[in-house]
Predict the 3D structure of the following.
Amino acid sequence: MKAVLQIENLTKNFGRLCAVNKMNLKVEAGQVFGMLGPNGSGKTTTLGMLMSVINPSSGSFKWFGEEATHETRKKIGAVLEHPIFYPYLTGQKNLELTAMIKGATKDQIAEVLQLVELTDRRNDKYKTYSLGMKQRLAIASALLNDPLVLILDEPTNGLDPMGIAEIRELIKKIASDGRTIILASHLLDEVQKVCTHFAVLKKGNMVYSGPVEDVNNGSETVEVNAEGDISEVLSAFDGVSAVNRENGFYEVKLKDGIKSKDLNKFLFEQGVTASHLVTKKRSLEKQFLEILAESK
Amino acid sequence: MLHLLQIDLKKLTSYRTFWVVCGLYFFTLGTTTASGMEFLKWLVSMGASFGAEINITRIPFYHFPDVWQNITFVSGFFKAILSFMVVISITNEFSYRTVRQNVIDGLSRSQFLISKVLTNVLLSAMSTIMVFVIALITGMIYSPSIIMGDVLTDLEFFLAYFLEVFAFLSFALLLGILIQRSGLTIVILVLSRLIEAIIMANIDDYVPWMIPYLPMESISNLVPMPFPRYVFQEIQDYVSISSVLIAGAWTFVFNYLAYLKLKKSDI
């Protein structure tokens, strides 16, 4: 697959602080790429460098296989940190200005306004917009000129649950057009719900990168309960690597390749009928915390 | 080029402050330069009560070709108002952080700067045209006879005036980019001439030859003060090539420093 973005040894130092340390990353066409990391881990700095508003200390990156220029940026729609617009201009005029810079046509403005449902408020000044509307206008502006790549940095920051759901739907809608999306967030749930791939940053270092599906691979954990004490029965199963009692359930960690149905079958053969048996999905949150803990 | 100018004008033309400041600028510039005769009349009426008699029609303030230098000199004072607009325009980009978004959206940093510089060129050109029209009309009203030779003499003052305004606006743009806060920038802009005057007073005894090379001094040397000629003093009634070269060099330096600063910093 064609690499949309290739980063090599990208580094940024702010004085003695190393905000991004020798980052290597590849994003391929069609991926919805999540950048995870606690606040201050270097996500926005990285994106700022990719959009040429922050000068890298060393290292390089390529968009679409070429050196980045202002022309390549016109093919990328980006919102970093928070929406930035001229407060005294209307939503419509702000978008007209962006369209002039990007070389987009005027028809597209109506189109993107429709998409983010701001058509009714387009002639109101930007400063009168609510936070959710500002975020939506920023996404509309990023979508002008049909970008090949969309970069969103904490797009749901400060939104109410409904706003978050709306933005999430919007991202999925955009991703379904086959566009590449790079999404920076500290909200794991968000990344898990919309991303195909993700990377984890910690204090400027990239500590993990891979597909989101992999999160669910590996050993399974099953929550089991039955009448009486079954801990001995459970421990007797070859496929079990650990048994813990937690919240009134037995938490059984299975060995690689062993599935919950194997455990169920074994229990049945032993004459134990499980009253509760749930395969626990490993959440990204858990994985994320593990990765952060491992990288210490 | 035109596209970049259009981008900057798009930002300004829906900004009420821009219209208010520019309106005030062109209004005060126009009325002040056009009402010199009325001012002189008022002065005479004041003097009359003390028994002094001055025949103002004998002061050829608005006569061709005197009018060119007189009006461009007076107009030079008003460039400060225009420079405040330039400061507001550039510092807004930093306080709203829109310079960042402009670059993200696909302007290069130099294109961003060029769009601002082009607006400065436009504002300077509009000032020059306005001053020319006023000088032409007042000259035609007040000159006793219109001789083509006199009308066409000394027109180089308009080039000098254009450079004077453009150089000062370039300086304002540079300060705005360096300081990024409108209030502080305006204070420093206003004080810069004063600070330079203090420096001038101090170096006068040691290196007097340096004085014409100071930036603010070189800008004000473009159109020299004409009025002492009416009390029979010798004045410089031409635009000196050296002052044009020095002010031109400073203009280049201002814009180049602005470019370097913008290029190097994280925005």
Summary: Residues 181 and 200 of chain A are 16 Å apart (CA to CA). The mean pLDDT of chain A is 87. The interface with chain B takes residues 48, 51-55, 69-71, 73-74, 78, 80, 84-90, 93, 96-98, 100-103, 141 of chain A (CB under 8 Å). Chain A is about 30% helix and 30% strand.
